[in-house]
Amino acid sequence: MKNSKIILPVVLSTVLVACNDESKPVAVTKPIPTPTPVPTQPTKPNPPTPLPTDNGELLDPSSRGDISVNGGATRLKKERSEALKASISNRNVKHVILFIGDGTSESEITAARNYAEGAAGYFKGLDVFPFTGAYSTYSLIKGTKSIDYVTDSAASATAWATGTKSYNGAISVDRDAKPQQTILELAKSAGFATGNVTTTELQDATPAALAAHVTSRKCYAPTQTSKSCPKNALEKGGAGSITEQLLQTKADVTFGGGGASFKDVAKAGTYSGKTLFDQAIAMNYQVVTDVKSMNTLTEANQNKPVLGLFADGNLPVMWSGPKAQVDGNKGAASLCTANPSRSSNTPTLKEMTAKAIDLLKTHQKGFFLQVESGSIDKRNHAADACGQIGETVALDEAIQEALAFAKQNPDTLIIVTGDHAHTSQIIPNDADSPGKTVKLLTKDQVEMTINYATSKDGSQEHTGAQVRTAAYGPHAANISGLLDQTDLFFIIKKAFGL
Amino acid sequence: MKNSKIILPVVLSTVLVACNDESKPVAVTKPIPTPTPVPTQPTKPNPPTPLPTDNGELLDPSSRGDISVNGGATRLKKERSEALKASISNRNVKHVILFIGDGTSESEITAARNYAEGAAGYFKGLDVFPFTGAYSTYSLIKGTKSIDYVTDSAASATAWATGTKSYNGAISVDRDAKPQQTILELAKSAGFATGNVTTTELQDATPAALAAHVTSRKCYAPTQTSKSCPKNALEKGGAGSITEQLLQTKADVTFGGGGASFKDVAKAGTYSGKTLFDQAIAMNYQVVTDVKSMNTLTEANQNKPVLGLFADGNLPVMWSGPKAQVDGNKGAASLCTANPSRSSNTPTLKEMTAKAIDLLKTHQKGFFLQVESGSIDKRNHAADACGQIGETVALDEAIQEALAFAKQNPDTLIIVTGDHAHTSQIIPNDADSPGKTVKLLTKDQVEMTINYATSKDGSQEHTGAQVRTAAYGPHAANISGLLDQTDLFFIIKKAFGL
């Protein structure tokens, strides 16, 4: 399929439905070689009779019928007060799966839905959550209590990962650079298995904040840490670079990109002089680098932790398309295509999520898993609508995997949110925007213009609007209304009974 | 206070708290002469013992404490599954109050909160709703089933007012120009009292769509209707202009602007040759034109309907400030000031809402009331951040009035939403936007930059993102998750038991 232009909106209606069905191939990647099946629960007994399914009814927000007639466009199928009431539970959960769409809120979700499902359609993952709300995302100015209205991904990840507000650039340290315990560390210390999955470099802010504490998000590896985070450097008695701390924190499952940083060399400590890759091997990590090797994994635990390094940098995105440009909406509409530089050897977010759940679910106590679709943000920065939309669709497909697990395991809380709002806006096709625009032909077979207009020539900017939250499962009711980003830490902690 | 520059962010913390307290004056308008109190329920018996307060706990989303320490920025005060569960009800309501912030969603609410309450603060109206969600707002291309991703206020108001999707410009007619029954007409025919309150012209899309059916939103008065909506013109056997239909539909209470259209003359029918103002008088409308006369009203019903005409056009907005301009954020930050061209003779949205509720609540059967803060949209179009924020604060204050009523009358459903998303975005203060920007000094005593970048020189554009919904009271649980705009009609209908 490399370089072949496929008519995605038309094909996608079939493809995206097909993606729900494990027996059918995923259309935008090559067929994946199926390894010899390995039982995922070889030694554990089957769980007892499932708990009552009180996770809350998932929504079916499909349009009722002909959208041009009275009631035809409605999404609510029935009065649902009693159903929702019956579904609410505050009992402890075994599993929490937190999905982060980096830079993903109402505008990004709507644009992706319009393109891939049609305006009257819906995402079978993103759009079916019974409880939804919004949270504030402001950060602090370093060393002060002063407000920064536009957070970066580091301060925002620190906020939900630790419950503490911090400054832009902080990785799970507070405004005074003091390390804060993360929800992954807390869950791990309480005996839960843990996982950390992303489509970006593992050292990028969102995954890093779960497992590392450094004063600057730049400090991926030892060399940069000595320069930018000297107090964190191993040779200065610190806990080391983000990558070194990721290894030490040792989630049971860690999947993402960022392999390049593992080529750097430790400057002190037990592994002084070794590459971080060699350190991982010495620490007994099972390192996998493609779909095939990922699928051979049969266990992930503290003796045999799993490290998936699927790219040197960020994983290549799913879709390509025209970049937005000044007056871009005044030309013809375009279609998104499969990213030709993406190989089916690289796992999709859905595949990584499915594998992570399979590996973690054998742990008796339960697990905490964070899954990030990180390049929704990066393609928004780059004014690349197709890139952004494709990664949002990838997020949706990963969420569908988790929902399928939660339906079978009602002691599961799933939370879906973004870390901050972003630039992209859907504007009228005849708008005369001062920014960069692109016009796409959607599944509805009509044109949709996306506007990127927070930066003239540089990277498009984050924005400060409160961000959508959504949840399913016990404790999900806490997610509606207005929260702050820091509330997530405490909601998850409480859900675990910690 | 005219022309005086007041430091609103500093003063507002006091003012807005004070606004909750009826005994204190409203700071940004002159003290209002208090008319001789008139009992509002002179002949009706007091209601029996109130129903159980099962409207759902209102949230207290204030930050817990010092936002720079662990947990200090959280808004959730306790695990609320059981409280929310206990509060959910699907019993019929007597009263529905629907608040529309025109062009108001996450970005507008966050910007207003940051300015007036601080980022860690909250609005005592807008932000306290226990159930929140989002709805899709797409409209149709006239005469087709084809999608328009960016609605105007006419198609969107038609959607929730009638449950039918239509084209931009449509006032409660479907894509083929066929009139659709509105929720106000339905409630009225079922014996409920009705009210329609706005800060814009009464003929503007949002209030018009409740009570009129015309093929173009422009058709305010007979002269324009003959030109732009000939099939609707009285002299062609139609139902007349928006203004004539508003009079005929005869809500018990109609408050807003748009007096100018009442000077036009009917071209046919019973009132042929008379101004629409004279027609109103002939129809026994009690016409009031300022706060003082509004406050003398003691009843509103089908024999003595109430028509408040508080401006020839839109009501003047509450606040003024610098317009956004290219590189506006590169200069000094500004404060918003009271709009010098606003007189305290003009009622605030809060005052109109309070009076409308007072007049409607005496009706035994109950009432339907729509309240719109319409100039949030208009000032967003004009890249006027202070105007936009001031009208958002006005919406919040009006909502607080309704919440106070609902707490005393648990058989009340309140819904708060916007009709479409809009241009304004909070961006970093050092951003190099291609659009128009303005930098404000907020209550937090820090700078906040607002970006307007969907139109180079013309009116800023609506945007297509799904829009926040929020609700309180019986049936409120239906508002969470993903809805379409048309769902509102059916949720309200069902809540009334119709």
Describe this structure in words.
Two copies of one chain form a homodimer. Chain A has 498 residues and is of the alpha/beta class. The first copy, chain A, has a single domain, classed as Alkaline Phosphatase, subunit A (3-Layer(aba) Sandwich). The first copy, chain A, is 27% helix and 17% strand. Chain A is built from 14 helices and 18 strands. Chain A has helices at residues 8-18, 81-87, 106-116, 153-162, 183-189, 205-211, 222-228, 242-249, 276-282, 291-296, 349-360, 375-381, 385-408, 487-495, and strands spanning 95-101, 131-136, 139-140, 147-148, 193-201, 253-257, 286-288, 306-309, 319-320, 325-326, 337-338, 367-373, 412-418, 425-427, 436-441, 447-452, 467-472, 481-484. A ten-stranded mixed β-sheet of chain A has the order 7-8-6-5-12-1-13-17-2-18, sandwiched between helices. In chain A, strands 10-15-16-14 form a four-stranded antiparallel β-sheet, covered by helices on one side. The longest helix of chain A has 24 residues, at 385-408. Chain A is globular and about 70 Å long. Chain A starts with 7 loop residues before the first helix and ends with a helix. The interface between A and B is large, with 110 and 110 residues. Chains A, B: Its cofactor is Mg(2+); Zn(2+). Chains A, B: Residues 26-70 are annotated as: Disordered.
